[in-house]
DNA sequence: CAACATTCAATGTATAGACATATATTTGCA
DNA sequence: TGCAAATATATGTCTATACATTGAATGTTG
């Protein structure tokens, strides 16, 4: 569905660029809803999921809050509080960093890794089959345009 | 900056499509931050701004909460509460619909229209000059890809 | 027309983002 | 060394999304 129909806009946009901004926000919101629903059965939010993925990507190396903040998609989000919630679910561990007591070393637990495994087919496989209305070539174009848009 | 650098991802994405999903969320978050900062001096949030724009677009016709919900970019957002906040700022009016007392007719006030006028140069003009790293042709492509992505 | 279903809006509760501020620790340098 | 600046994290407060539920008004149908 074209963006104009999606938001029932009858007047034309003042430019393709203006439309692209609206389309970007709308499409991100659309995706957000999809992802939220996919993750709901696992009891975690997209943001918490994202943190678990980053932690797994660190391998043996622990992450600090700072590291997470830098790598999170929304880097104004509050890594401290998200980590706190993950800790309550025993999905991550938090240890005072011995080198620098200001820091906190965060690692994913076995339970956290297991949860990621359980989400894999839905979050990786299914997405591609159910939502991949773009070919690889189109996805590549989209990536280039989004990168360019941010300047 | 390419998305991999932006989120300091060292491992390659499993596919261009997976990367596009991450890029979409990241770029929307980037835009969200830009817009939030642009609107902050005017004392309204992006969502409230969006509602004002929809109301202005209605012309003389009033909008109901339902109408707003349908047209909002994030249609899970809570139009009732956003309207309530706009009303407190005297930017909109809310009247019981005489035809159907379940409904509420919402209209933008003169003050609301004035606020939109004040934001115009920043939200319309400036965006294009400061953030339009895309040409019209590229914006068009982006629109097509985003529309296609949603299926 | 009465009973039931549907629609519209509001609200309760959980999660998260935006931003300022607080607190502890470390660094740097006079 | 001592003290100010910088850094890392946590927290307070406002705003907003996600979703279930409530309650009033209206539609529908036997």
Characterise this structure.
Chain A has a single domain (44-149), classed as Arc Repressor Mutant, subunit A. In chain A, a hairpin with a 7-residue loop joins strand 1 and strand 2. Chain A has seven helices and two strands, in the order αααααββαα. The longest helix of chain A has 24 residues, at 16-39. The first copy, chain A, is 62% helix and 7% strand. By secondary structure, the first copy, chain A, is mainly alpha-helical. Chain A has helices at residues 3-6, 16-39, 46-57, 65-71, 79-88, 110-131, 136-149, and strands at 92-96, 104-108. Chain A is elongated. At the A-B interface, helix 2, helix 6 and helix 7 of A face helix 2, helix 6 and helix 7 of B. Chain A binds a DNA duplex (30 and 30 nucleotides) through helix 2, helix 3 and helix 5.
If strands are numbered along the chain, what order do they take across the biggest sheet of chain A?
Answer: 1-2
Query: What share of the residues of chain A lie within helices?
Result: 55-70%
Order of helices and strands of chain A: HHHHHEEHH
Which of globular, elongated, flat, extended, rod-shaped describes the shape of chain A?
A: elongated
Keywords:
homodimer, mainly alpha, Arc Repressor Mutant, subunit A, two-stranded antiparallel sheet, 62% helix, elongated, DNA-binding
List the helices and strands and how they pair.
Two copies of one chain form a homodimer.
Chain A: H1 3-6, H2 16-39, H3 46-57, H4 65-71, H5 79-88, E1 92-96, E2 104-108, H6 110-131, H7 136-149
Antiparallel strand pairs in A: 1-2
The first copy, chain A, binds a DNA duplex (30 and 30 nucleotides) through helix 2, helix 3 and helix 5.
